[in-house]
Task: structure prediction
Amino acid sequence: MAKTSAVEKNKRRRKTVANQAAKRATLKATIMNQELSIEERFKATLKLASLPRDGSKTRIRNRCEVTGRPRAFYRKLRMSRIALRELGNLGKVPGIVKSSW
Result:
């Protein structure tokens, strides 16, 4: 199990990203618009820099839904390889059976 504080911090980041997404997108569009003056674009850059860092989507860490483990994460199943193996052995994940040869 991962530290509860790390899992909760990641959840807070997801909420912040959801709240800030529209604002960040408009500021980024303003910054990339070549037709605007440099002063307007620079003001938009400063506003974007003043927003919270945790509002950026790249700050979110993919974590296992079962254990909170940050590594060896399968996106499709939203869990780590270890949790997948345990649940697969118990027969709780459809389509996964233990291999033997």
